[in-house]
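User: Show me a protein chain along with its predicted structure.
Assistant: Here is one chain, sequence first, then structure tokens.
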Amino acid sequence: MMRQIWIERHGPPEVLALREAAMPTPRAGEVLIQVAAAGVNFADIMARRGVYPDAPRPPCVVGYEVAGEVIALGEGVAEFAVGQSVAALTRFGGYSTHVTVPQVQVFQLPAGLDPAHGAALPLTYLTAYQLVVAMGRLGKGETVLIHSAGGGVGLSAIELAHIVGAEVIGVASRAKHDFLRSRGVTRLVDARSEDLVTRVKALTDGRGVDLALDPIGGRSWRQSVDCLAPLGRLGAFGFAAAADRPGRWLPMLRAAAGVPWLRFTPLALMNANHGVFGVNLGHLWGETAMLRRWLLDILRWQSEGKINPVVDRSFPFAEAAAAHAHIEARRNVGKVLLVPRADSCPPAAR
């Protein structure tokens, strides 16, 4: 038997429950992985709260990324061997002690990279790669504004920005500023106590930034657009404002009301010489060749010492609710993981 964390119904973290289920068997072209660590992402929290349209309906198991050991191979799998340490992308189902994954979504971990840090790589760094490199086209000497700079994607984007030779302005609570300075970010904004636009303009001698990465949405997108320099781009990669308050639909409506819809029209963007693009890695699952190219770049940079995934905390499966609450309270600096433990649990409720 394997163990999984189920979202039994939409609601607070306490709706997460540990259950047993039958051990999966790899089909042709699949790899069976014994999970050592599973990544927790804000999309999982929005799925639990019922404001993530792509998520399956409860009861369900979410989770986009895992790392662990290959323990069985399906027919036709030649690239991997039993005993290899790997990371994998899982479009749901990652909150499990064992997962079967198509081999095209599995990647061998570089020597010396432990599974915990391996699980911190796939989704956050691929999202950051799409934002910074593939679509943001950030260049040497340009400046990027990174909201939620202390989160998993934020820290990944900082490293990629440094690789391409760009300057970084990080937005985070003041409690995270010292850590961000240790990651090479010298220009910082505490949006809770400072006016974001005024501060960013002051830090850029009035010019603004070339790229703004914003996972918050709502009113925050308006501020990010106000921070753009001529030819500036806004990369939207989440709508966290919809989960800022308890409830399901009212926070979503409030966040939507704050979006500057009229400034996102083609005519408005043309007149402002601005660009707006969106990133949803979950809608690129069919682009496996492209995702593999991106992740191979990321793994190469990791092996060269150019990136270093940050793990904030690891929670045992039995404390999945605490892991979600930790992220919702914005206490994490870096990646939050779920780690299997020998917890007893009741059978799955289907």
